[in-house]
Amino acid sequence: MSLFGVLSGCVTAPFHDAKVDPRSPIAAEVAKTVNPDAPYPTFATFPAKPKDLRPARQYGRAAAAVESEAAKIIKATSEESWTLTDAEGFAAQARAEAGPAAPAAIPGDAEAFAKQQKARANPPSPVKRD
């Protein structure tokens, strides 16, 4: 048997003579909906091309415009497009706006604060049960 003969068996429709089991719960529905004499659809039944679509080339132009704008944004925000100058002037201005520096903490202050907070932390009274 040739290879073509073997493969042609796969190409045929396996359901061309399929029968519905009359005991099946859907047998009556299949009989009502299946019309073996119904005409096959043709390409003439396809809907017409919509009239309100823009031409295909216009989609390409719009995509090219988006790509162009993206390239401009990437170029404008790349590392080479900006420099950091006058860092000392910026830092001096930030220090002036922030105000005077807070005094350095004394090591004993933290321990005293923690001790004071622990003394204030009283557990709640037990719930009275009747």
What are the defining features of this structure?
mainly alpha, 130 residues, flat
Quick description:
With 130 residues, this protein is mostly helical. Helices cover 48% and strands 0% of the residues.
Characterise this structure:
- This protein is an all-alpha fold and 130 residues long.
- It is built from five helices and no strands.
- It has helices at 3-11, 27-33, 56-76, 87-98, 107-120.
- The radius of gyration is 42 Å and the shape is flat.
Which secondary-structure class do the elements indicate? mainly alpha
What does the largest sheet look like?
none
Instruction: Give average pLDDT, whole number.
Output: 83
Discrete helix count: 5
In the predicted model, the low-confidence regions spanning at least 5 consecutive residues are none
User: What percent strand?
Assistant: under 5%
Q: What is Rg?
A: 42 Å
Measured between the Cα atoms of the first and last residue, the distance is: 97 Å
- Judging from the principal axes of the Cα atoms, what is the shape? flat
Bin the helical content. 40-55%
Order of helices and strands: HHHHH
Strand elements, count: 0
